[in-house]
Amino acid sequence: MDQTPESAQFFLTAPSPCPYLDGKQERKLFTHLSGRRASALHHLLSDHGFRRSQNLIYRPACLDCDACQSVRIRAKDFQPATRHRRNLKRNADIAAEVVAPIVTSEQYGLFKRYLEARHDGGGMTQMSYLDYEFMVEDTPVHSVLVEYRLTEDGPDGAAGQLVAVALTDPLPDGLSMVYSFFDPQMSRRGLGTMMILDHIARARTAGGYLYLGYWVKNSPKMAYKVAFQPLEVQRGSRGWLPLDPDCADTDAD
Question: What is the pTM of this model?
Answer without folding.
Answer: 0.89
